[in-house]
Amino acid sequence: MGGGSANGSSESLPLDTDGSADENSECLPLDIAAAESLLSSVNSDSEITLRREGDKSFEEFTRECPSIQSITPSLPYRNRRKRVRKKLLLNYQQTESRVELLKEAKFQLLNYRPGAWIEEVGGLRRTDYEIPKITTLLLVGPRSSGKSSLVNKISRVLEDGWFSVDRAQISDASSPGQGTYFLHEYTIPKESTSFCIYDTRSLSTSSEENFKVLKDWMINGVQHGQKITRSSDDKLTKNAIKLKARHAHSCHSLKRMVNFVIFVVDACSVLKSMVNNDTACLNFFSSTFNYPFLSFKDDKPAIVVTHGDELLPSDRAEVCSFLGDLLGIPPEQIFDIPDESDAMMELAVTNLLFFCLDRADRNLPVKRKSLLFKDFKFLLITVVLLLLLASLITQIARCPSPWASFFLGRHTVQPSANSISVEWSQIRHLWYSD
């Protein structure tokens, strides 16, 4: 998670009343040295806020707006918020020391192979799992949440190509016919077989449509170049998709099963919903995120918070804390990725990838033939033992021994009707001579 809160003169981009950023304002990154000095001088229990004159933090909004207090728990929420803020400040403080670990972290990610991080538990071995040729991560999120921008950030971190062209097309999704309408596969790094990221179309305002598409992706897999259409698309959007689909080649690409999901949200949109007490929007986030098909056993998707640089650090921490309470996940599962290309962004991206790839390997399905083979082997051993037991009983029945008499319930051996009886006293003279 990136972000934090501090007192100081560093500036941040405020929000207008409509939730958008003020373009005339200058956004400056938080000064790490200032954060370090503030951290050592400010009591951890005190409320820390970074603002310019006239700016208001979310805490001030909650005091002035009674409606927002209805969605804000009292003491537990405040304690959680303080812990998250402190952790964010510590992240700023420890940035320089953690940068030295980036090289090792990148090396491990670049050498990752599907199934390499499997935990052999429950008597299962690595060979018992269905290991994919490439691990697939799926990006899901509302309109303008920053999914395509996240693809470019991840690609740059692991390819060290800050001057290379963005791989994912970024467009103005607010314009008709613009945005992502086809599934795009991006191998990380290029031409790699370790893992790939799928950029998808933004979520619809209809939960029913979203659930239908998400269920299809999670059950049947995703395919590069696959067209994404909805029944709610207007005529202009449908025509635009139809024209763009003339170069689609999804029929020639392989289908890949999704191994883990990354849910991307815009920090500014979340904060706006919190301030305006937009319960409909917040319920939409919660219901989509908690859709059962997006989870793998007990592991829910990872949350990526984007555009946090445009908020006050205190509000940035507030958004992350609120999302954790709303979605029922710990702060460690929420990754605040800055827009600026700096060490904090690289650290956040590497932490995100480590988390997602670990969860993907942990939840790989077990081979069906492996289970069937184990069941067949058990059945075969049982049949062989029964045959041996039957053969042993048969041999005992045919053998006129004391043991056979014991097992078969016979205590004496009766002579048969055709047996010859000999009187030895009458024929003993044959052995004596006159």
UniProtKB/TrEMBL annotation:
Q: Where are the transmembrane segments?
A: 378-397
- InterPro entries listed in its UniProt record: P-loop_NTPase
Q: Where is this region: Disordered?
A: 1-26
Domain of life per record? Eukaryota
Keywords, A to Z, come to: Membrane, Transmembrane, Transmembrane helix
Name of this protein = G domain-containing protein
> Could you tell me which species this protein originates from?
Aristolochia fimbriata
